[in-house]
Specification:
Number of strands of chain A: 7
Radius of gyration of chain A: 23 Å
Helix content of chain A: 25-40%
Low-confidence stretches of chain A: 116-137
Largest interface: A-B, 61 and 63 residues
Number of strands of chain B: 23
Order of helices and strands of chain A: HEHEEEEEEHH
Shape of chain A: elongated
Oligomer: heterodimer
Number of helices of chain A: 4
Strand order of the largest sheet of chain A: 2-4-5-7-6
Strand content of chain B: 15-25%
Number of domains of chain B: 4
Structural class of chain B: alpha+beta
Helix content of chain B: 40-55%
Chain lengths: ~140, ~850
Amino acid sequence: MKRSHVFLLAVVAILIGALLVTLQDASVYATFDMAQKQQPETVTVVAKLDLDAPLHFDPKTTLLSFTAVDKEGKRARVFYNQPKPTDFERSEEITLTGHATDSAFIATDILMKCPSKYTDKEGVMPESASVNTPAEA
Amino acid sequence: MTYLGEHTFWAGLGRMFIALSFAGALLAAFFYGIQALRSPAEREERPAHGLRSAGRWAFSLHSLGVLGTIGALFAALFNHWFEFDYVWRHSSLDMPMEYIASCFWEGQEGSFLLWMTWHAALGMVLMRTAKSWEYGTLMTLSLVQLFLASMLLGVYIGDLKIGSSPFVLIRELPENLGLPWTEFSDYLMRIPAFRDGQGLNPLLQNYWMVIHPPTLFLGFAAVTIPFLYAVTGLIEKRYTEWALPALPWTFFGVAILGTGVLMGGAWAYEALSFGGFWAWDPVENSSLVPWLTLVAAGHLMMVVKHKKTAPGTALFLTLFSFLLVLYSTFLTRSGILGETSVHAFVDLGLNGQLMAFLGFFTIGSLLLLAFRGRHLPKSPSEDAFSSREFWMFIGSLTLLLSAAQITFSTSIPVLNKLIGPEGMIPLLSTQMAPPADAARHYNSLQIPFALIIASLMAIGPFLRWKESPAALVRRVLVASIVSALLGALMIWGLSLTEPLYAALLVISLFAFVANADYWLRFLRGKWTAGAMAMAHMGFALVLLGALISNAKKEAISTNATYIHADFPSNENILLPLRDTVSMYPYYVEWMGERTEGHNRIFDIAFYEVETPLASWVDGERKHLKTSFTLAPFVQMNARMGNVREPSTQHYWNKDIYTYVSYADLRPTAEKEGDWDEPMEASLQAGDDIFLFNEYLLHGDTLVVQDASFDPESGALNDLDIELTMTLKAMDGTATSIILPYHLHGNEVETTEVEIKDTPIKLRFDGVTDESGTFKVTAWKKKNQDPPFILLQAFIFPYINVLWLGAILMALGSLLAVWKRIYRSLSEEKK
């Protein structure tokens, strides 16, 4: 066997190894139900903030607690031991990384999708403008 | 109908220029293509200068089109013509002039245009310098530009949207077509929303946004040029010759793209509150990966140039680097990263086109490589173990593996689309998400690769053709001893316990010392010969600086409040206003906040203990001296959301990095809260009365300033009196207060006076006639909590090593470019 073949084999072996590690490290997109079943494994849940439920932030302990609704409509109380992200209430969708306990979901990371980031033209250049103008004219 | 106030001439002009650049690229590809597909020998036989001139003309017209498009777009941005969707979306009236450039490339269309501009500029250089390579390279470049220009066309063929034009007017957007307001010829004056644009995302409003994108896109454009040479080499069967002219471009790309990527890191570190210079974010990763493969390609090109054989891997890596740039374009612009990245572009609905762009060049390159693969010259013998070439090959493979790993992990959202439960071929039962702890994931895989790369960088330069291992050991002996000693010292000094980090520290030191040694001893420190050593030393410093500043990054703002076993103590310190708090090794005090423009600035003073003895007396101000003050701020932007921006104190050996992680950002009036139910008091001069169980109010004197009586009836007409009182707090501080009272005819005028430094407000309601008793109403504020902020503070040790390394690396690579240009110029003269 030629030396180049040995190296090719080594490269393929390392590549497969790296892929396996990546797959192992990758968390999964889950629902709150799945997170419950898989506790204490770290999962990622895409959810919406429930604005009707109490949202509490205690700056002294930096504990934020709120209720989120996942894509299947399941609600969960979420605790996040970091300062409340700016414009948290305005978020359209939140991506929670963390794990479930029997009673709540403990988030270690929150990524928000804000409507402002995805320019919301309807809000600014609205039909309302078109409704109002004929009256003026 | 003509609309009033619209600049439709400029819109038409802009579109015309885009069409010109598209048509120019098409013609250039055609004219150059005819000649490019003939072999060089054929071309020599039948020179067909006319075709070459036609190609040059077409490409020049294309470049003119690109320039014109830029001009028209700048005119629209500069003059705030908000009827243009692009202008309205990305700029606003209150933006400082220097950010006009930033809004130019904030959107996808503008950044495509930026990329095209660099391509066109480099293409004009190629036209003059490429000689026999002109046909193939410019044909391929024209094809690339054709795809890019199509992204800006903004035309519809049936329902198919081709490109997104930056010159679309808002009333022409599909979602607005037919709306009643578009029927008014004076809609621009009538609808207030058109008076101002949305403005630039506040995250992007700093000078980094002015310099980072042009640098990065020049880097991307520079990756294209070696690709053009490789493609031409394959088409024209000049399998090894292409490496020589491609090399300076490759090093140029390495320098510029490397600078661009690290500039992004510097930006994140200086102006964003991500808490570091590198977060393994998909967008960062996808600009790093082409750099890694380009470095690998450059090293193998040197082997090909030197040995004139076995160009397969070099060709593959060169093609692959460009394809990775396209893939990176696809990732960041298709919206596929939406949930996983903080700074991807907005989806413009051009995914099909982006995929066609990526697909055309991927399939084209692979087919070309496959068809020509059999004819590639093979090396007659295998490289010796001790040869530089062999180890360069190993190093390049390692870089490729490193790039492959980063790409794979970054592509998880793409994998979900392909094989996820809702994907095209549903292989997976659940959606994969990116690694929860990105830093740990990437570090654990990338550090071993970095170890190999750094070792090869150290030993590589000393490798000579056909030498015994013993000779090599003798050569690197000095460097290894020096770096082992220095490394041990640093590991001890930094108390670095992680074995993988310690290993990388020693090895990257080795790479630095070995290259310095090689340059000084073997090349006698000659500047012109130092390109390789300098670039290697720079990269070693980048590794070293990244390693130390990350591994020893220390959060000094710890909050030790125990909540629950599930919540480890976190990194946010609570700072009440004007209270000195210990934050080892500093004491910090939040001095207050102020507003400058859009920024709410928080002044934080850092104190150090003056003498060790004084530190025993905890927190007494006289033992502390001000070391420095930092001013982290929050940029207030109602439309885009508020942005926290850090402030950093730089020392040569460490940075103290802070940002406000939480603050009450409501306006002051709103923040102060409501008043409690009032309390009414009656007292006479000399009386004391308790207010809210906290304050003692003392009535001093009543002074009549002015009084006038109606001369006929003798009734009081005008009265102007002042009541002087003293408010004593529990701690004994007394405040003297003057409360006015005016009477004009029947109208009584009283004033509510807020007492400074207290939550109290008083009002003098007048005097009861009989006994001269004053009536006073008192209020106390409801919300009495002292204001506070939460602060995060980190120490990044030796981060300057990283920036120094970046500069050195760029200089070394540019030196290599200059050396090659100089050499080819002097060869021409002979």
